[in-house]
Amino acid sequence: MKYSGVDAWAKDVSEMDMSKERLSIPQYAMALAHVASLRSEDPYRKVGAAALDFDNRVVGTAYNGLAPGFDAPEGFWDDRDKRQKFMLHAEVNLCSLFKRGEVRVIATTTMPCTACMQTLCAYGVEEIYYRDVYKQSDAPEIAKIYGIKLEQVADYPLHASGE
Ligand SMILES: Nc1ccn([C@H]2C[C@H](O)[C@@H](COP(=O)(O)O)O2)c(=O)n1
C-alpha cells in the first residue's frame, strides 16, 4: 500500500476492493495511534498510542501532553529540555486506561522510551508496534530479554513507509 497523505489515502481506500483488502492488526492499531497523535499539544513531537485487548477490540487511545487540567504558562513550550520532565508520554497516558493483563497489543507512533517500555512490561503487554525510532531508548533490549514482540510498522493508511 502507498499513502502520501489523507487525500491519497481517501482515494486509495475508495478504490480498494474492500471484500479482499483488509488492514492487518498492527496497521489498524497504528492508524488509530496516528489519529490520536493529532490531538497532542506538544509542538516538538506529537505521539499517539492505541491499545487492543485479546480479541483485538480497542481499549483506548492516548497522546503525549500535560497533566489533565494543567494550563501551560507563557513560554512553557519554548525550551524542550526544561519541559521534558513535565511531559506525560502517550504510553503512560494509555496505561492509565486499563489494568494489567487486559491489553495484548500496543501501537505507538514513537518507540517507547526506556521507562515507558518498563511500564508496558509491568502491564503485561505482549506485542508493541512503533512507527518512528526513538534513539535514546533501551526498548529493543528490554523487549528481547522479556520476550515481548517489538516491531516497526510504517506502512498503513495515513502514512507510507519511507516518508
Ligand atoms: N515514546 C515516546 C517518546 C516521546 N514522547 C513525548 C514526550 C514529549 O512530549 C515529546 C518529546 O520527547 P523528548 O523531548 O523526550 O524527545 O514526545 C512520548 O510521548 N512517547
Automatic annotation (TrEMBL):
Gene3D superfamilies named in the record: Cytidine Deaminase, domain 2
UniProt keyword terms in alphabetical order: Hydrolase
Domain of life: Bacteria
Domain CMP/dCMP-type deaminase: 24-146
PROSITE patterns named in the record: CYT_DCMP_DEAMINASES_2 (PS51747)
Pfam families to which the protein is assigned, alphabetical: dCMP_cyt_deam_1 (PF00383)
Name recorded for this polypeptide: CMP/dCMP-type deaminase domain-containing protein
Organism of provenance: Rubritalea halochordaticola
